[in-house]
């Protein structure tokens, strides 16, 4: 088993980060592509698997095209909003229909620009598959989601002349059906997206492969949804208990009775103001845990199902509790340092992720790498035009 290690330090990265921030501000954001390259190179170079580290080969000049296109589209959208609502809708539609193409080009570029032990990665997925995954499936998932709202309404409308109790029961049944459709729809979308992102990746001439079960993703999404509801109920319950203990039941009664009375509501809220900040903090912590749970469970499952050339396997051992601790303390670090702690927060997260990622191989990894290096030499480094936009489409 090969351990994955991240050897970067917060102070070392801070020196890169602060220069990037200052130059990006001074150049009115035009330096951003070069800043992104410096960030990528630092994190790639400090991430090691066994004896080798990753490398990022793009230049700021190459990334500038994609950034300029994104910047121009953003400006056009802002101007269109001011000039004509219809114009802004047209721009959004153009972005929607162009989004799969942007993802496809970005995947090709980013993987071509990434290497491990001097062997380049690549992406061979088709544009048609990108449109299927990131437009058609998205539309289907959204339709499934909105069925939560329109299915119960249809049931009640159709049975308006019958017993209200029966109509309500059937409406509730349709609501459950809508929830099931939404969960399955998003789980299927996540499955197909993940398989597209992994199964068309190559390492030299080696091929990655994964096979995902929709039912596993559906269970994770369902548990995440239930955890979110439980978190909201728990925070609300704690708030009410503390309000009664420290402000008295009268404060809650005043808040309830002040509905529609702005001054009365403000006075009632003032009596409870000392509890609002702790309630927000608890709510943030609860939702961080929900997000950490979903991220850890999905990542662990995806890695367990993935391989390279069938004889190199991957393992992720993220813990939701440990991950939420890193996320929450990182948030505090960034907030209480007014953003200056961002480099340390990023390094802490990278170190935790790397420490819980493993590569399991059934072959001599050094021999395997040597074979890929020999193939790489014959393939050459034919890199075409670059198009790269930050998408957040990761595994």
Characteristic key phrases:
3 domains, ten-stranded antiparallel barrel, 395 residues, alpha+beta
Task: Describe the model.
It is a single chain. The protein has 395 residues and is α+β, with helices and mostly antiparallel strands. The protein folds into three domains: 1-123 and 306-395, no CATH class; 124-200; 210-305, no CATH class. It has helices at 10-26, 32-45, 60-83, 85-112, 127-158, 164-199, 214-246, 249-257, 262-271, 273-304, 320-336, 342-355, 365-379; strands spanning 2-6, 47-49, 52-56, 114-116, 119-123, 201-203, 206-210, 306-308, 312-316, 357-361. It has a ten-stranded antiparallel β-barrel, surrounded by six helices. A hairpin with a 3-residue loop joins β8 and β9. The two termini are 21 Å apart.
What's the structural blueprint in terms of helices and strands?
Blueprint lengths: L1 E5 L3 H17 L5 H14 L1 E3 L2 E5 L3 H24 L1 H28 L1 E3 L2 E5 L3 H32 L5 H36 L1 E3 L2 E5 L3 H33 L2 H9 L4 H10 L1 H32 L1 E3 L3 E5 L3 H17 L5 H14 L1 E5 L3 H15 L16
Antiparallel strand pairs: 1-2, 1-10, 2-3, 3-4, 4-5, 5-6, 6-7, 7-8, 8-9, 9-10
Helix pairs in contact: 1-2, 1-12, 2-3, 3-4, 4-5, 5-6, 6-7, 7-8, 7-10, 8-9, 10-11, 11-12
Structural class: alpha+beta
- Average pLDDT level: 86
Shape: globular
First CA to last CA: what distance? 21 Å
Q: What is the alpha-carbon Rg in Å?
A: 25 Å
Largest sheet: 10 strands, antiparallel, barrel
- How many domains is the backbone divided into? 3
Number of helices: 13
* Poorly predicted residue ranges: 377-386
The total strand number stands at 10
Could you spell the SSE succession in H and E letters? EHHEEHHEEHHEEHHHHEEHHEH
């Amino acid at each position: 088993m090969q351990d994955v290690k991240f050897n970067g330090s917060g102070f070392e990265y801070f020196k890169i980060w602060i220069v990037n921030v200052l130059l990006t501000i001074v150049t009115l954001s035009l330096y951003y592509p070069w800043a992104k390259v410096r960030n990528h190179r630092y994190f790639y170079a400090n991430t090691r698997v066994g004896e080798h580290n990753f490398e990022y080969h793009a230049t700021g000049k190459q990334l500038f095209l994609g950034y300029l296109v994104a910047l121009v589209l953003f400006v056009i959208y802002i101007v269109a909003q001011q000039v004509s609502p219809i114009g802004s809708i047209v721009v959004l539609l153009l972005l929607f229909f162009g989004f799969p193409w942007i993802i496809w080009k970005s995947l090709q570029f980013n993987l071509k620009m990434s290497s491990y032990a001097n062997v380049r990665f690549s992406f061979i997925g088709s544009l048609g598959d990108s449109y299927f995954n990131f437009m058609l499936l998205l539309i289907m998932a959204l339709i499934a989601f909105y069925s939560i709202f329109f299915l119960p309404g249809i049931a009640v409308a159709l049975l308006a002349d019958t017993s209200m109790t029966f109509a309500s029961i059937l409406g509730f049944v349709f609501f459950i059906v809508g929830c099931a459709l939404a969960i399955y729809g998003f789980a299927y979308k996540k499955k197909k997206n993940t398989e597209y992102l992994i199964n068309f990746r190559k390492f030299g001439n080696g091929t990655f492969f994964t096979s995902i079960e929709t039912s596993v993703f559906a269970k994770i999404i369902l548990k995440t949804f239930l955890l979110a509801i439980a978190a909201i109920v728990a925070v609300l319950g704690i708030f009410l208990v503390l309000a009664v203990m420290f402000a008295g039941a009268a404060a809650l009664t005043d808040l309830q009775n002040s509905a529609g009375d702005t001054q009365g509501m403000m006075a009632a809220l003032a009596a409870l103001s000392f509890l609002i900040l702790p309630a927000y903090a608890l709510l943030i912590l609860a939702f961080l845990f929900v997000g950490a749970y979903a991220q850890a469970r999905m990542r662990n499952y995806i890695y367990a199902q993935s391989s390279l050339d069938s004889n190199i396997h991957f393992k992720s051992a993220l813990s939701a509790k440990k991950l939420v601790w890193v996320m929450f303390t990182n948030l505090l670090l960034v907030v209480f340092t007014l953003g200056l702690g961002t480099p340390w927060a990023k390094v802490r997260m990278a170190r935790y992720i790397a420490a819980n990622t493993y590569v399991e191989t059934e072959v001599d990894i050094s021999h395997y790498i040597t074979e890929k290096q020999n193939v790489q030499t014959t393939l050459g480094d034919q890199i075409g035009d670059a198009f790269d936009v930050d998408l957040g489409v990761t595994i």
